[in-house]
User: Fold these one by one.
Assistant:
Number 1:
Amino acid sequence: MRKIFTFFAGFILFIACNSSTTNAPIETTSEGEINISVEESFKPIIEEQLKVFNSSYPKAKINVLYKSEIECLKDFTKDSTRMIIITRGLGKAEQAGFKNQLGYAPTFGILAYNAIAVLVHKSAKDTLFTLKQLGDKLKGVDPQEVVMDGNNLTGINRFLKDSLLKQAPFGKNVHGANGSADVITYIKNHPNAIGFLGLNWVGDKYDPKQVENQKQVKTAMLECTLCEENGMYAQPSQATIGRGQYSLSLPIYYILKENSPGLGSGFLNFLSLERGQLIFRRAFLVPAKMGFKKRNGLLN
């Protein structure tokens, strides 16, 4: 009797363990479900990347939230967020903090280069700006109305503050729109204002929505700080970003916390290899993983 009881107890335990294993969620580099947070200014290009990735890997589900850079970093401290895509990497103190928290340091690197476009109305006559002129507008020394791509600390706002304002506060003439799409709408309706937003919202010559917007708004030209000849100006484009001729270019960084290969690593591989890099290039951005080396601008 004892042997029979032992046999049935072992059999039930085996079934329970086997059932538990069967019901456990499966995650590989091409299957499973994860959450990521992305800087709102990168939305058009990341949406295109996800569309192709999802069509190739139908068992993968990547839930994405588009937020300001500072909110993405806050999300990254939560267990539920596997990856963020923003305009900077992690500092040494941040790396040490995450290593203490997780037991390992997250990986990060540059996927591609974007640019901050200075947007003006199609009817605007003043379309050439020096960096000093832009700095004066952002500080309020020049009271021209300025609209930014968010009310919170976005990557673009942080970059402009670091590079053009040297940590000085924005002037009272600077307003925060509710995202990049609203910057475009605002400039359409306010011909005397200028706006700052990511080039990937207005630089694609084949995207129907962007082509339609280009009928009412246009990008201004900035002084070329790397050009040998004085008085040269550059339009934001794939070529001028790559050559370092456009002064307001900025990187697209990934930050991933994954201690073993999972769906986050799979998506990162997709973004870093040929198909993902070609999508960046076709969006008129500059891929960073295809043998490309970008020259540094002269923003100090």
Note: Confidence is low (pLDDT under 50) at residues 2-17.
Number 2:
Amino acid sequence: MEISVKRGHPQEQKTACLIVGVHAGKKLSSAAEAIDKALGGTLTKLFKRGDLTGAMGETLMLHEAPGTSAERVLVMGCGKIEGVEAAEYQQIVGKAARAVADAGLRNAVACLTELEVKERDTHWKTLQAALAFHNSTYRFDQMKSKPSKKTRCAKLTLLVESVRNAEAERAVAIADGMAEGLNLTKDLANLPGNHCPPKQLADAAKALGKAHKSLKVTVLERAEMEALGMGSLLAVAQGSAEAPKLITLEYTGDAGKSRPIVLVGKGVTFDSGGISIKPGPGMDEMKFDMCGAASVLGVMKAVASLGLAVNVVGVIPAVENMPDGKAIKPGDVVTSMSGQTIEILNTDAEGRLILCDALTYAARFEPDVVIDIATLTGACVIALGSHASGLLSNHDPLAEELLRAGQHSGDRAWRLPLWDDYQKQLDSNFADMANVGGREAGTITAACFLARYTKAYRWAHLDIAGTAWHSGKAKGASGRPVPMLMEFILNRARRAG
């Protein structure tokens, strides 16, 4: 999609759809006032008749717009005029984008950045509008013999105030880069397990390396991981015919002047649960167990596309977890790269087994911070649902930085405790630790397990089990937490600049 910003009068915009906002209490935005005048008071009449209320999220498509240069006018309800909340603005632009997509319109002009949003500036409003329209054009239909032929919106123009053009243009450029990363994340996550084994993730990383000279890509094979002593990661892979991969992507954006941000993404390309096999219903969604890996690849693509002045490393342990005669069994003891031994009580708690070796490996990059991203625990879904990712960290400033990035981007997280009190749940009679800590506080004990491998650096863990994909009729990858991570990295890049 081509997105641009410009100045101009709303009624003079030649477009398939002009989008304006109205508020509750019969209050029109300045763009809506101009359109109401051009339409001979149509919006005012609709208010009087009760066909238009201005309530938050309301949409009304006028299919004729005489007196303007637009073919249609989409009127968006924006709630109270006193100031729109950030989350409400995201709802408004999201609904506007979906309305344009549902109508199959080829282009649109939006006059929504003029809305007053509490504690948000033009840059943020433009970025969110651009991202919403990019998101509305996403489709995953490469597995279908007859892909949809419905017209996608190919061009969006955002009308902005003249003094803020440069600010808005920069926001559009960032949105374009982020959309590339989000689309890659969704594409990889939506692929079925037979089309996206560990090798496919490695190939996707190599393709990024070829497309962006700023990215150095390395893929370690089984023998190399054996030489490093990655017994925990390899234990998960041993029940599958698919070979494991350890993928690293190194982006240098400031000539090596700063220590890198290291992102570690869980890449279980299909999780059957292994010998501790999962129930059959819903198991198809376990193709999404590599959403952490997909999000790391998406972030690396976005960062490289934008050429940000920051150093970022992505580390992806990629495996398939399957039951087989060679698969690990409950009660087995394995030795991690760190030398710590693990009693495997449940083979379906495999994500932490591959992450612990990847987290040990991450130390060699001398990181400033390490953030792991994983669809790790069903307990997190029970605790937080699909609204917030779980966040646990051994460093308060890092945790606060991520929480702020999540709040600002709308891709929110909620922090859970990482107290030593929970560590005793991982006690084992036969190894240094067990890989599960019982039913209580499952998200926390999973993070406590990982914390034993992250003492050498500042670390945060994002449990995205509830946020990485949608179930039901809208089943598909959400792209989260790419927006949060990009906000975090963009903030770092701004400070460095």
Note: The chain has two domains: 2-137, 182-496.
Number 3:
Amino acid sequence: MFIKVPSATNLGLETIGVDVEVNIANRGLPVFEIVGLPGKTVDESRERVKTAIINSQIEFPARRIIVNLAPADLPKQGSFYDLPIAIGILASVLEFRIPENSLFFGELSLDGTLRHTKGALLFSLFAREKGIKNIFVPEASANEAAIIKGVDVYPIKNLGQLLSYCLGQIKIEPAEYQEKEGKPREAEFDMKEILGQEQSKRAIEIAAAGGHNLFMIGSPGSGKTMLARALPGILPKLEEEESLEVTKIYSASGNIGPDGSLVTVCPFRAPHHSISQVGLVGGGSRPQPGEISLAHRGVLFLDEFTEFPRSVIESLRQPMEDGCLTIARSMARITYPSRFILIASANPCPCGYLYHPKKACLCNQREINKYRKKISGPILDRIDLHIEVPIVEAKDFSQNESDLSQNNESSNLIRERIIKAREIQRNRFSQDRIFTNAEMKNTQIKKYCLLSDEVKKLLVQAVMNFHLSARSYFKMIKISRTIADLEGAEQITASHLAEALQYRPKIRLE
């Protein structure tokens, strides 16, 4: 008997329909084969499906079973074919009809229960795009799939329950999406805990408000890492469209746990400097998203920036510019989004005390030059804000807690300003499908960033004096626009541009 069960496979963030064709012959020796370019995980489905059926108190047919995953020229990976294969076999043996206009996916345990399976959101999106009304998924993945409206998501506990439903013995109610309230990510530090560093905190605020990249350079102990770790506390929640973009990436990579819901807080990724290029950018024989894609619509913090291999640092060029990256392999070509805020920090030299007011630097010029050359000019040019983080004076340590809270703004207060600035940007770009000032292209800059003659004259003078590139020229305008948004100003003034010019590169490569 021949049965066709609709399913699908994920290639990056793209989902492609796959028909699981099951044929059980009346003649021939007992065999269970899967064809259609199955990978190792799919090939192992034979043992999982067979054992799950037996442990569900159902007799497994001792006949010739051939399962074809069509189209046959598309490589298949993943454990989510277990359920469609199993239900196809049972439908052939027990002769019941597969529910019409339905999609099946899920991984089986050996006892017949269904395990949480990554990619449920992508399957649900695919079902809606193709007009498929029903999808049958593991109960632990149902809430994730139910994010998408217009699709009935049936949560399945085990194989026996699905069989009873198909035979008309029980009813299963579609799952209703239950949103888990996303709280602002708890930062390791509050901004009011950071002593001094007013300019550095201002730069962090501008970076968060406009989505700008930031590079901090300073001696050990100056507070660079503390500033970056306090950043999640001032970031606003994701907008609905941003949230869906991030959730799709996390669903594809398996970073959404059982009963997961939309990702509503900005991601904060801080990989160690020993990370490989594939780990940062993504890739592999079956390309998976790397840290820069997992940081999409959030923050990528690269501490000890100069300790990263130069090849890893240089791989950031294209994603920082385009907001996406394409991973090309012989078997697939996959594009992942990568619109993130880069926060990088480094010491000024190998020993870290080159510009320290009291400690002497122990490095020679050759060591300093070699250390600095890990960061190329094109990378520095792609970073909007550059600051030197000074050493905190000893007198600042003597402040008591009450004085500290009075003199420093809290993260909550700063976040309120950032939310207002983001609201201005969201209204401004409502027709452009972008969210922050940093994403503006040149045509949008000309449209939304009108400059007075005074500001134009100051900007041209800065370009000539600082030898700014064309990219830096437009970045200055974007930063000025963000500073104006934080003040609630409609026009960019000379004071906004003057502040933006303070954040040009301070690192000296000579």
Note: The mean pLDDT is 91.
